[in-house]
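Q: My labmate handed me this sequence with no annotations at all. I'd like to see what the chain might look like in three dimensions before we decide whether it's worth expressing. Could you predict it?
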Amino acid sequence: MGVILLLLVAAAVGGAACVVWAERGGPRWARIVASVTLGIASMARSARKNGRRSGSAGGSSDD
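A: Here is what I predict for the chain of 63 residues:
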């Protein structure tokens, strides 16, 4: 379990580094990795917003 978590953290850090590198005009592969990273982040944000909407029907708030 710890190895999987470590790999996920390494992938997130690597993706963030590629986003920064691509902003500064990095190689094509870095721009592709950055696009994938930003797409995954966008999907995660969307899923989180949808989860909040469906969970708010109970009347309690997590904020």
